[in-house]
TrEMBL record:
The lineage of its organism: Bacteria, Bacillati, Actinomycetota, Actinomycetes, Kitasatosporales. PROSITE patterns: THIOREDOXIN_2. SUPFAM superfamilies: Thioredoxin-like, TPR-like. It comes from the Bacteria. It comes from Streptomyces dangxiongensis. This is Co-chaperone YbbN. GO terms for biological process: cell redox homeostasis; response to stress. Residues 21-155 form the Thioredoxin domain. Pfam families: Thioredoxin, TPR_19, TPR_20.
């Protein structure tokens, strides 16, 4: 599966947050069921470091990344720097006590994964968070730098994706933790079609696939979230950012100009700027213009997610501006 890029400073990916929350909920249910049957639902320290191959990548990395940030150590037997770095990563994985999972991948035995991640040399270290691939560093790194990188990764995973990691029990038997198996749903085919369309850059196809789901289930959360971001990406396609921002600066009361600039702000990861711009525009407008701005702001709330603190604060600000 081709990994996608994720920026720590950028806007969240379209369905990643929702998918992570759903997968996390399923994992918690599985652990709760294990507890009812007399198990702990915890992993042993030995299970915090795993060897992964191409056949198990989706199960062991992509699916697990909905519970915990998965750090990938790409290594090779002939690589001397790898022999220095890998033991440090393994020790830190245990020390972080379930806040990360370390996956070791031998590039000589898994050439396809090496190519998919665009790796030019080893050692190379990536992370996968809620299915999103993030390059961390390549080559040698001292322990302090690694710790700083892992601390930032853990913070982003928790703040933006709600991932709190795994429960570790030193007395747990390896292999005893339940694996949450995602249940097939009635809309899986349409949602998979939307994801494939997005990966191929076919925004129109993704939008139609999400609308097909919503035509039958208007409140489907993943389809609502996916449609909101796919439509946002479609709106900014072909925009000249410099021209849009200049027009917005020159015409603060122009609803169309402010809405376009807010879309660009959000896609660029400037969430507070996008919300603030539209709230100020609400304050300056009335009638149909004000309603158009309000509707777009609500759409952007859907993209970021209703539980995000920035959305909660902006909703309060919007209420004050309206009333």
């Amino acid at each position: 599966m081709q990994p996608r890029n994720m920026s720590m400073s950028g806007v969240v990916d379209l369905a990643a947050v929702k998918a992570a929350q759903e997968a996390k909920a399923k994992a918690e249910q599985a652990r709760a069921e294990a507890a009812r049957q007399g198990g702990t639902g915890a992993v042993s320290p030995a299970e915090l470091v795993i060897d992964v191959d191409e056949a198990g990548f989706e199960r062991d990395v992509l699916q697990r990344s909905a519970e915990v940030p998965v750090v990938i150590d790409f290594w090779a037997e002939w690589c001397q720097p790898c022999k220095q770095l890998s033991p440090v990563l393994e020790r830190l994985a245990v020390e972080y006590d379930g806040r990360i999972l370390l996956a070791r991948i031998d590039v000589d035995a898994n050439q396809m994964l090496m190519q998919q991640f665009g790796i030019q040399g080893v050692p190379a270290v990536f992370a996968v968070v809620a299915g999103q691939a993030l390059p961390l560093f390549q080559g040698a790194a001292d322990e302090q730098q690694i710790r700083q990188t892992l601390d930032q990764l853990v913070a982003v995973a928790e703040e933006r994706f709600g991932l709190t990691g795994l429960t570790v029990d030193p007395d747990a038997e390896p292999g005893g933790a339940p694996q949450a198996a995602p249940a097939a749903g009635p809309y899986d085919a349409a949602l998979n079609a939307a994801a494939l369309a997005l990966d191929a850059g076919d925004l129109g196809g993704a939008i139609q696939a999400y609308r097909n789901v919503l035509a039958d289930d208007p409140a489907h959360p993943e389809a609502l979230l996916g449609l909101a971001q796919a439509e946002l990406l479609q709106r900014v396609q072909g925009m000249d950012p410099q021209k849009v921002r200049q027009e917005a600066a020159e015409k603060p009361s122009d609803v169309r100009a402010q809405i376009a600039a807010a879309d660009l702000d959000l896609v660029g990861g400037h969430v507070e700027d996008a919300f603030g711009r539209l709230i100020q525009t609400v304050q300056r407008t009335a009638g149909d213009d004000r309603d158009a701005v309000r509707v777009r702001l609500l759409e952007l709330f859907e993209v970021v997610g209703p539980e995000d603190p920035r959305v909660i604060g902006a909703r309060r600000a919007l209420a004050r501006a309206l009333f």
